[in-house]
Amino acid sequence: MRKKLIPYLLVSPYIVYFAVFVAFPVGFSIYLTFNKWNIISPMEYTGLSNYIRLFNDAVFWKSLLNTLVFLVIHIPLQIIVALFLAELLNQKIKFKGIFPRRVFLPVIVSVL
User: Fold this and answer.
1) Cα→Cα distances 99→36, 76, 95, Å
2) CA distances to 10, 14, 28, 49 from 2, in Å
3) Rounded distance, CA 106 to CA 108, Å?
4) Contact assessment for residue 76 and residue 58, using Cβ atoms and an 8 Å cutoff
């Protein structure tokens, strides 16, 4: 009996963390999409009207298009630059000891 309980005890911190910080906020956010609520007044159930209004909004479609264009441009460029820097770090170049420090310095030093 005790051997069967130990794995559940070991996994329970993650399950509690997941439930409190992931599952509940995601579930509540989905629930909120079907309601009209400004935190001060009580919730008013609106059904799918929020989604209908969203899909009929030109600004939503424009922002979605802008996001997709940004991702199509940004992700390949980020991968290319990262591979270029990784290749530079593996080359035998002059001042090789300085280059990794200059690349990783922004990661190490916090922004004030």
Assistant:
1) 54, 23, 7
2) 13, 20, 36, 52
3) 6
4) no
Dihedrals phi, psi of 70, to nearest 5 degrees: -60, -45
CA distance 112 to 110: 6
The radius of gyration computed from the CA coordinates of the chain, to the nearest angstrom, equals 24
Q: Tell me: the pLDDT tens digits for 28-50?
A: 999 999 999 998 999 999 999 99
Q: Using the Cα atoms of residue 24, residue 25, residue 30 and residue 32 in order, give the sign of their dihedral.
A: positive
| Confidence (pLDDT) at 55 | 95
- Tell me the C-alpha distance between 41 and 4, whole Å: 48
Q: Which tokens sit at 41?
A: 């007044």
Please tell me the pTM assigned to this model.
0.62
